[in-house]
Amino acid sequence: MKKILLVEDDFAIADNLQALLQVKGYKVTFVSDGQSAVETARKELPDVILLDILLPKLGGFDVCRILKSETKTKDIKIIVTTGLGRMGDVETAFQAGASDYIIKPFD
Known about the structure:
The protein is α/β, with parallel strands linked by helices. The protein has four helices and five strands; from the N terminus they run E-H-E-H-E-H-E-H-E.
């Protein structure tokens, strides 16, 4: 079973995504801040991380940079899911190591 780490500080969005992904057969772990995201990724080694950018404790860009700089977590696919759609934000996400960038709201 594929493992997804969902990092989202909006609990309504997180609940909806978690339910949808679980129905599709994924094992989903949810955290709501950046520091927990780093700790959980190191421990659980998910296949994919769905990562919001505007997070408490540690921002998503920093989470991405940290995980991509560590041997143990560098190969995890990180998909940024955020309401930030400015070109500079997209570029920053890819420079930090994101695999993809999805602007909220999304279907």
